[in-house]
Structure formats: C-alpha cells, structure tokens
C-alpha cells in the first residue's frame, strides 16, 4: 500500500507530465511545475477520484503545492 | 457518414419533435448511442420508441432543473458511458414586444434557452476532460445575429449561446474538446408554424433559396460537427439558413 505522499506524487506526475524529481514537497503546481489554471482543476479532479473525496472549490483554490495537497487529503480522508 | 460515431454517447436535449428529433435520428443513424430528452413522460416515451431500433433511449428532463441535469448525466455515464457528444437543442419562445414583455417572459427564455446550455455543458465537462475528447454543439438561431422585433428575449439568449461557446472553446480546446454552434434560419417546425402568416411571408422573401429549411438540414450540420471530419473546427457558428443571413 502506497502512502498518501506517494499517491499524490504519482497523480501530479501523470497530470502535469513532469519528472519525479521535480515533484518536491514544496513545489508549486503553477510556479514550479508549469501548470495552467485548467491543469490545476484537472489535478483536483484526479485527487478527488483517487481519494474518493470531494474537494469544495474554495478549498481547492488553497491547494497550490504538493504538500498542501497531501495535508488536505490527510485531514479529510479516513485512513 | 454512416458509423462515424460508433462508440459515442450522444445526449440531445429537446428531442421529442422538430429539429431535436431530426438531430437524434441523424446521430443514431451515424452509429452513436443517443439519449434524447423531453419535458414530459409521453415525449420521452415517443423518443424511446423512435430510437429503439438504433439502440437509442428517451429520458425525461427539465433543462432548467440543475439537479435533474446532473442526475441524468450521472445516470447516463453509469448505464451507457460518459457523454461524448452533447447537443443543446431544447428551446422555447415567448415572443412579445419589449414594452409588453413580462419579467417571466424574459426569465423563462434565459433559463430554458441559455442557462440550460451552461448547466449541461458544465455537467458533461468532467467526463470529456478525462476522455480528452468531446463535442459540444448548441443550437442558436439566425435571430441571435440579426435580431427580430418581438424576440428581444429569444435573440439575447441565442446570441448568448454563441459567445458562451466561443469562450468555452478557448477554455477546453487543449483537451481535445470542440464547442460549436449551429444557427438555423427559418425551419419548418411547430415553432415557426405558430408564426402569423404575414411575418412568414416577409421572412420567406429574404431567403436566397426561396424556401423554408427542413429539420434534417440542421441535423446534417450537427452530424458533421459531431463527426471526426470536423475535428479542427471549434468556436464556430455554422449558419444553416438558405442564405437568409450571410455574416
């Protein structure tokens, strides 16, 4: 079973088409990983599906880095 | 163009009669699994019976009911697969000179003819983004470009569809989704049969081809935009009006 960090990282790599070593905890999706606004929407969609949760729009806007995504998932999923 | 839509799931709103019925038939003939909607049980049943030979289905939907739109699109995804072709066709008229127009006449047209396009398009977005392909085709009207006395509400809604589609085309083009509009001219349907004879004659005089269009003329244009042949066309308005208006 992969950790939440690993699963988030995998999704970021797939969605944004970036290399694994670029996806550091503090990497910003937009500034460091080259995501545009539509990419970030898709990323949130993919996270929702992977972790079977719904991320409200106002929360989704605050998720701008890999670490913030991990923290959000940890705080809002059961296991 | 047979079988070019094999494997596609097409949702056509307002498919029980007129242009919508012709579009549903055309897309079904092209091989798509078509789900046509009507506001009444009887309408949905009629669609079901008409499309069943081609594997299509009728469903009840009030396009002004946001929750119902989402529920239907979820149900289609579960039963048939995610919608890959959306045709926004449902529309009504409430013609009235502006000085006599009631707020309800304005609001009903905006809700049914324009806000519905926003709702259905938004609801199919997730599935199309995931698939990285999709076709959204909305039916506007020549009136949305020329204007028409007594139709300020209808013209505003139809012009709104065109501007909405251009914006959405720019938003999601990078995901392989095209967004286009077909703007019918004067087509022989229940809607235009309700017009007074006088205005009908006046309109006919402006049509280069000298006749009303058929619902199937619109359906063929929609079929083209839905097909792989139109893959490089987006944000476009296709005018199918017999030369009544040439932008």
UniProtKB/TrEMBL annotation, chain A:
Carrier domain residues: 2-77
Localisation per UniProt entry: Cytoplasm
Keyword rRNA-binding: no
Changes after translation: 4'-phosphopantetheine is transferred from CoA to a specific serine of apo-ACP by AcpS. This modification is essential for activity because fatty acids are bound in thioester linkage to the sulfhydryl of the prosthetic group.
Pathway: Lipid metabolism; fatty acid biosynthesis; Glycolipid biosynthesis; KDO(2)-lipid A biosynthesis
MF terms in GO: acyl binding; acyl carrier activity
Single biological process term from Gene Ontology: lipid A biosynthetic process
Residues annotated with O-(pantetheine 4'-phosphoryl)serine modification: 37
Keywords: Cytoplasm, Fatty acid biosynthesis, Fatty acid metabolism, Lipid biosynthesis, Lipid metabolism, Phosphopantetheine, Phosphoprotein
Annotated GO CC locations: cytosol; membrane
Functional summary from the UniProt entry: Carrier of the growing fatty acid chain in fatty acid biosynthesis.
NCBIfam families associated with the record: acyl_carrier, PRK00982.1-2, PRK00982.1-3, PRK00982.1-4, PRK00982.1-5
Family the entry assigns: Belongs to the acyl carrier protein (ACP) family.
PANTHER family: ACYL CARRIER PROTEIN, CARRIER DOMAIN-CONTAINING PROTEIN
Listed name of the protein: Acyl carrier protein
Organism: Frateuria terrea
TrEMBL record, chain B:
Function: Catalyzes the NADPH-dependent reduction of beta-ketoacyl-ACP substrates to beta-hydroxyacyl-ACP products, the first reductive step in the elongation cycle of fatty acid biosynthesis.
Source organism of the structure: Frateuria flava
Uppermost EC category: oxidoreductase
InterPro entries according to UniProt: 3oxo_ACP_reduc, KR_dom, NAD(P)-bd_dom_sf, Sc_DH/Rdtase_CS, SDR, SDR_fam
Gene giving rise to this polypeptide: fabG
EC number: 1.1.1.100
Entry-linked CDD domains: BKR_SDR_c
Keyword Cell wall biogenesis/degradation among UniProt keywords: no
Metabolic or biological pathway: Lipid metabolism; fatty acid biosynthesis
SMART domains noted in UniProt: PKS_KR
Keywords recorded for this protein, A-Z: Fatty acid biosynthesis, Fatty acid metabolism, Lipid biosynthesis, Lipid metabolism, NADP, Oxidoreductase
Assembly notes: Homotetramer.
Residues covered by the Ketoreductase domain: 8-190
Reaction catalyzed: a (3R)-hydroxyacyl-[ACP] + NADP(+) = a 3-oxoacyl-[ACP] + NADPH + H(+)
GO MF, one example: 3-oxoacyl-[acyl-carrier-protein] reductase (NADPH) activity
Family named by the database record: Belongs to the short-chain dehydrogenases/reductases (SDR) family.
Keyword Phosphoprotein: no
NCBIfam families in the cross-refs: 3oxo_ACP_reduc (TIGR01830), PRK05653.1-1 (NF004197), PRK07231.1 (NF005559), PRK12826.1-2 (NF009466)
Name the UniProt record assigns to this protein: 3-oxoacyl-[acyl-carrier-protein] reductase
């Amino acid at each position: 079973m992969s950790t939440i960090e690993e699963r988030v990282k995998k999704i970021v790599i797939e969605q944004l088409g970036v290399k694994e070593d670029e996806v550091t905890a503090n990497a910003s999706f937009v500034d460091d990983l080259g995501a545009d606004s539509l990419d970030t929407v898709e990323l949130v969609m993919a996270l929702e599906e992977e972790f079977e949760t719904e991320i409200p729009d106002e929360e989704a806007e605050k998720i701008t880095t890999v670490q913030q995504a991990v923290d959000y998932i940890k705080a809002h999923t059961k296991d | 163009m047979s079988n070019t839509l094999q494997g596609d799931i097409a949702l056509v709103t307002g498919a029980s009669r007129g242009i919508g019925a012709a579009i549903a038939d055309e897309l079904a003939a092209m091989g798509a699994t078509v789900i046509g909607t009507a506001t009444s049980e009887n309408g949905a049943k009629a669609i079901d019976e008409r499309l069943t030979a081609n594997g299509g289905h009728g469903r009840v939907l009030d396009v002004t009911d946001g929750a119902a739109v989402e529920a239907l699109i979820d149900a289609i995804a579960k039963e048939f697969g995610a919608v890959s072709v959306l045709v926004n066709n449902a529309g009504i008229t409430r013609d009235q000179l502006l000085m006599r127009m009631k707020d309800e006449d304005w609001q009903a047209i905006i809700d049914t003819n324009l806000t519905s396009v926003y709702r259905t398009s938004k609801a199919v977005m997730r599935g199309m983004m995931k698939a990285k392909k999709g076709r959204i085709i909305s039916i506007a009207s020549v009136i949305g470009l020329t204007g028409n006395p007594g139709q300020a509400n209808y013209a505003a809604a139809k012009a709104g569809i065109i501007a909405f589609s251009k914006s959405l085309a720019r938003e999601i083009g990078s995901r392989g989704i095209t967004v286009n509009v077909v703007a019918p001219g004067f087509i022989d349907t229940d809607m235009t049969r309700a017009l007074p004879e006088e205005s009908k004659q006046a309109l006919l005089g402006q049509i280069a081809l000298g006749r009303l269009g058929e619902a199937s003329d619109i359906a063929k244009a929609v079929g083209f935009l839905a097909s792989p042949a139109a893959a490089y066309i987006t944000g476009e308005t296709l005018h199918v009006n017999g030369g009544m208006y040439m932008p």
